[in-house]
Amino acid sequence: METSSGGGALALAVPLLGLLAGLAVVAVGVLRLARAARARRRRADLDARGAEVPGVVVDVQIHRRGRGPDAPSAYRPVVAFTTAQGRRVETVAGPTTTGRWVERTPVRLVHDPDDPEHARVLGPPAGVDADPSPLRTALVGAALVVVGGALAVATAAALV
Question: Is Transmembrane a UniProt keyword of this protein (predicted)?
Fold first, then answer.
């Protein structure tokens, strides 16, 4: 079967675009996996060498996940605490949650003695569900690697 030069270029361009799209999806997946691993290491480091102190929620940051009035929201607490050296600190100190934090709620948190703004609340209070974002990020990253890899292999086979 004979094709015109335009048809041959299109026949080559479609699988090539599929291959590039698959590789792009793999790259996004790898970046998400790396982000999750970095967050896990940072959390483990903070837990190992951080100082545990009482604090209080002084504000709540609200982030929309998507567009429109029905987009789900995520919440992060802004906490205030005093270091062992007497320094008062206010910082955003997760975890990100799907339930709303309440201002003036007492919390326990751990902070980096060398960088007190690097802190995290040790579990949300009762009634607030934590968002397992590092785990979710890793799972989405792994899924993107698999889907992108399959797309790249399938379209690369079409090029051969």
Answer: yes
Q: How many CB atoms lie within 10 A of CB 82?
A: 13
CA–CA gap between residue 138 and residue 35 (Å, rounded): 8
Number of domains in the chain: 1
Could you give the CA distance from residue 51 to residue 13 in angstroms, rounded to a whole number? Answer: 57
The backbone region for 104, taken as left when phi is positive above 0, alpha when psi lies in -120 to 50, beta otherwise, is left
Q: Answer whether residue 1 is part of any domain.
A: no
Domain presence at residue 123: yes
- The rounded distance, in Å, linking the Cα atoms of 47 and 65 is 28
What CA–CA distance (Å, rounded) separates 116 from 90? 9
Determine, yes or no, domain membership for 78: yes
Q: Is 68 left (phi over 0), alpha (psi -120 to 50) or beta?
A: left
Q: For 44-73, what is each residue's pLDDT tens digit?
A: 888 888 999 999 999 998 887 777 777 788
- Which stretches of the chain drop beneath a pLDDT of 50? 1-3
Of 63, 95, 97, 99, nearest to 79 by C-alpha is 95
111, containing H or E segment: strand 106-112
Q: What's the rounded Cα separation, in Å, for the pair 78 and 80?
A: 7
